[in-house]
Automatic annotation (TrEMBL):
Domain of life of the source: Bacteria
Protein name per its UniProtKB record: Predicted oxidoreductase of the aldo/keto reductase family
Organism this protein belongs to: Stigmatella erecta
Gene3D superfamilies: NADP-dependent oxidoreductase domain (3.20.20.100)
InterPro entries on file: AKR2_Oxidoreductase (IPR053135), NAD(P)_OxRdtase_dom_sf (IPR036812), NADP_OxRdtase_dom (IPR023210), TAT_signal (IPR006311)
PROSITE patterns listed in its UniProt record: TAT
Taxonomic placement: Bacteria, Pseudomonadati, Myxococcota, Myxococcia, Myxococcales
Span of domain NADP-dependent oxidoreductase: 50-238
Length: 333
């Protein structure tokens, strides 16, 4: 049954944060066999594999997008990722079309892309996202792409984006709030230093991260202290280059990421073939032992120590159009 805003306003999570190993272990399976995990202290369970919204907008047309989203939901993926600026709103529009009769079966997340501009801009983006997604509320609304040195300061300025998050949650337009970023653990820690009640934080989680500006080493422990859910992304390094170079397999990459203390892993899925592949991996998933993780990290260390395969950390190639424009960069940047 669909929850009303009034019902959402009454919601209060009370679950404690699981230990590192417990959080990485499979929990109750979603319909279709995809394991679920607790979303931090919210008390909500989500599928450990999330459908990435960026890739949804790259499909040939809305019919192909709707078909893939429906297949993912029917297979047991409950967590839907998106963002206001993905493909000029196309990703949200197509996902909204797919969810018209399935909204109550998913945990829907999208992101505002104001990069710390005024609260009003963030709220306007939220209203646009709700219209595109054909819903009256989000399960999770996150600040997108904390990637510029002045982002933390701007987000927390008077009438900044975090005030929009708080207002939207109070009004019942969103259940939970968080932020994302792929650039620097230091920026994430600055965001977390304000004591703001974030429910989630999204970041790169992959087998190369531990060697260079590591989110796993620096940010995940802080999230555990604060009871905030970690959301992983870029398990294939944002481009798939390590897979193409034969450095590791897709299964090794996903299994390593899912063995970290995260609630879910956002995966770019742009075909039925990739969907079937990733579903098979998570359905047979068993956490890596510490020894297995260390062995994989050591094997990859010669290629991981300078960030050369994590270009989202070392270049501006992965920054979105809104942030680029605000910082005087071209679309190609």
């Amino acid at each position: 049954m669909k929850q009303s805003r009034r019902d959402l306003l009454k919601f209060a999570g009370a679950a404690a944060v699981a230990s590192r190993l417990a959080e990485a272990a499979p929990k109750s399976p979603a319909s279709g066999g995809v394991p679920k995990r607790l979303l931090g202290k919210t008390g909500v369970e989500v599928s450990c594999l999330a459908l990435g919204g960026h890739h949804i907008g790259t499909l040939p047309d809305v019919k192909a997008s709707v078909r893939l989203i429906h297949q993912a939901i029917d297979a047991g993926i409950t967590f839907m990722d998106n963002a206001w600026d993905y493909h000029d709103g196309r990703s949200e529009l197509w996902m909204g079309e797919a969810l018209k009769d399935r909204r109550d079966r998913v945990f829907l997340m999208t992101k505002c892309c104001s990069h710390g501009r005024d609260k009003r801009t963030a709220i306007e983006q939220l209203e646009a996202s709700l219209r595109r997604l054909k819903t009256d509320h989000l399960d999770l609304w996150q600040i997108h792409e904390v990637a510029w040195d002045d982002d933390p300061e701007k987000h927390f300025m008077k009438d900044g984006a975090v005030e929009a998050l708080a207002q939207a949650k109070k009004e019942g337009k969103v259940r939970f709030i968080g932020f994302t970023g792929h650039k620097s653990p230091e920026l994430h820690l600055k965001m977390l230093s304000h004591g703001f009640p974030f429910d989630t934080v999204q970041m790169p989680i992959n087998a190369f991260d531990s060697q260079f500006r590591s989110f796993q080493k620096e940010v995940l422990p802080e999230l555990a202290k604060q009871g905030i859910a970690g959301i992983g992304m870029k398990s294939l390094n944002g481009s798939g280059a390590p897979i193409q170079q034969g450095l590791l397999t897709v299964e090794e990459a996903l299994r390593y990421a899912l063995s970290q203390p995260i609630a879910t892993l956002v995966s770019g899925i742009d075909s039925e073939k990739v969907l079937r592949q990733n579903l098979a991996i998570v359905q047979r998933f068993k956490p890596m032992t510490p020894e297995e993780m260390k062995a994989l990290e050591q094997r990859l260390a010669p290629k991981a120590q300078d960030g050369g395969l994590e270009l989202y950390k070392t270049t501006r190639k992965f920054e979105g159009p809104v942030g680029r424009a605000q910082h005087g960069m071209s679309a190609e940047g």
